[in-house]
Amino acid sequence: MPWLPGDYLRNQRKPNWCPGCGNYAILVALRQALCDQQIDPASVVIVGGIGCGANLPYWMDTYGLIALHGRAIPTAAGVKLANPKLHVIVIAGDGDTYGIGLGHFLHAIRSDVNITLLVCNNGVYGLTKGQASPTAKKGQVTSSTPRGLLYDPLNPLALAITAGCRFVARGYAGNADQLADLMKQALNFNGLAYIDILQPCVKYNKNFGYQYYQDRVVDLQKIAHPVQNRAKAWEVALGAEDKIPTGIFFLESK
Ligand code: SF4
User: Which of 4, 119, 142, 195 is 20 to 30 A removed from 159 (C-alpha atoms)?
Assistant: First the structure.
């Protein structure tokens, strides 16, 4: 009997995210991607970090666990090494992955461990009331930067491409269909598949909400971007802020 999207749904509890949070679309897209691939929920382990989006395993009827802050990636790598038949997915925030977990991010790319890495990127630490994260914009006013952030943001996609990641993509929570498609490709990829997901935090990062992204996102797969060209991917990742590319930046099969 085929799996349906509802078979991945844990009915006992409802997500406690703020109304309008981008995490809802990520949850829907992940269920859709798993269903489209007809992946048995009992073969899926979702490892969350610490953060709003990282609570997603609570609402999936798969296996799941919550790791320490910044340690979701090595925890997931351990699960995969213990049982390579499992589909192992990490869901963690930008603060978690690009802050305290940055070393694990780079070394997981280096070891090319066969997991799917989903990063909910909203530019703040939403769970702890909106402090600036490593991807917060220069000048951004947050609870920890009341006079505006002094630094430029980290560019995680350029970093991943430079570090040798073979599957680098960016999704957007305002486009769940595209996101589900990226997740499907990531689930089929043999190696570390990384998707940075623009996930509006409607509570603590109101200046970078849906309208901000809606006016800027561009789908790379609609403008004939050469996904196997690392230099081009890097150029796109470092491009101007007025256009925000989404889709597959770089893909290298082995
Ligand atoms: Fe979502 Fe932000 Fe609310 Fe957290 S604080 S649930 S990231 S909108």
Answer: 142
Q: Decide whether any atom of ligand 1 lies within 6 Å of the 165 Cβ.
A: no
Closest residue CA from atom 3 of ligand 1: 18
Kindly give the distance from the C-alpha atom of residue 19 to the centroid of ligand 1, in angstroms, as a whole number: 8
- Among 122, 133, 199, 206, which is best to mutate for testing ligand 1, by the most ligand atoms less than 8 A from CB? 122
- Following DSSP, what letter does each residue of 134-180 receive, concatenated? TTPPTT--BTTBTT---SPPP-HHHHHHHHT-SEEEEEETT-HHHHH
Dist. CA 42 → ligand 1 center (Å): 29
Q: Is 21 in the pocket of ligand 1 (CB under 6 A)?
A: yes
Q: What are phi and psi of 121, to 5 degrees?
A: -105, 105
Ligand 1 centroid – CA 133 distance (Å): 14
Positive or negative torsion for Cα 195, 196, 199, 201: positive
Reported pTM:
0.97
Residue 97 Cβ < 6 Å to ligand 1:
no
> Could you tell me the maximum CA-CA distance found in the chain, to the nearest angstrom?
57
One digit per residue, the tens of pLDDT, for the chain of length 254 reads 699 988 998 876 789 999 999 999 999 999 999 999 999 999 999 999 999 999 999 999 999 999 999 999 999 999 999 999 999 999 999 999 999 999 999 999 999 999 999 999 999 999 999 999 999 999 999 999 999 999 999 999 999 999 999 999 999 999 999 999 999 999 999 999 999 999 999 999 998 999 999 999 999 999 999 999 999 999 999 987 789 999 999 999 98
* CB contact at 8 A, 233 and 227: yes
